[in-house]
Amino acid sequence: MDWSRIEPWDYIVINVASEYHRKFDMVEAEDIKQSLYEWFIDHPNKLTEWEAIGHKDAKNLLYRSLRNQALDYCQRWKAKTVGYEKDDLFYYEPELVEALLPAVLRVDYSITHKLNLGRTGKPTAPNEGGNLPVMMIEIDYAYWKLNAEDRKLLFFRHAEAMDFKEIANLLSLGTDDAARMRHKRAMRRLINKIGGFRPYRDEDTKDSTETEESQSTVSEE
């Protein structure tokens, strides 16, 4: 790809490389940048589509994709440095965290035997190896690292089983949709504190302007 296509977005490459070098200090920032430049080479169609919808939207989409690229690259190098396989990494899926939150927040581990956490195919949860208590401890630890507003909303939703309309009224959020979006952001912050989301496969196809609703984000603090 011609450098002139990349240059207008080089500030994003620099910012993302710096961000992930701080998170993975065993990986050189320049190496992360090279990986991000490779994203542009591998995704010319996607870049064209995103540039066509306007600078602001293209910027947000590029930040999302380049952060996923950086996360995947850094995790591979961390695995190589520390001496484990990248496939050994475990990601807490939102559905799994939501299933466990009531037991964690109520400090009632007796209800976990009612949970159906089984998955088909390759095991994706430590509970399948007898590590359910470890998962719950990690979720609890992450919960207490959130700000008070996020903790309150998650508690009302998952410990008190309130619906979003009740939460909106109690927290003066205006509408149940506003409460739902606040909950979604709180869940993302919680998951980011216990390892983050699984990097998605970023293909260079047409109609690539998926919204935030259809793909995971990897960094929202």
Helix-strand blueprint:
Blueprint: H1 3-6, H2 10-23, H3 29-42, H4 44-52, H5 55-82, H6 94-106, H7 132-143, H8 148-159, H9 164-171, H10 176-192
Note down, in words, how this protein is organized:
By secondary structure, the chain is mainly alpha-helical. It folds into 2 domains: 3-87, no CATH class; 94-192, no CATH class. It is 59% helix and 0% strand. α3 (29-42) crosses α5, α4 packs antiparallel against α5 and α6 packs across α8. The model is unreliable at 84-89, 118-130 and 207-221 (pLDDT under 50).
**What is the number of beta strands?**
0
Percentage beta strand:
under 5%
Helix-and-strand structural type: mainly alpha
Largest sheet, described in full?
none
Order of helices and strands: HHHHHHHHHH
Summarize this, please?
With 221 residues, the chain is an all-alpha fold.
Jot down its keywords.
single chain, 221 residues, mainly alpha, 2 domains, 10 helices, 0% strand, globular
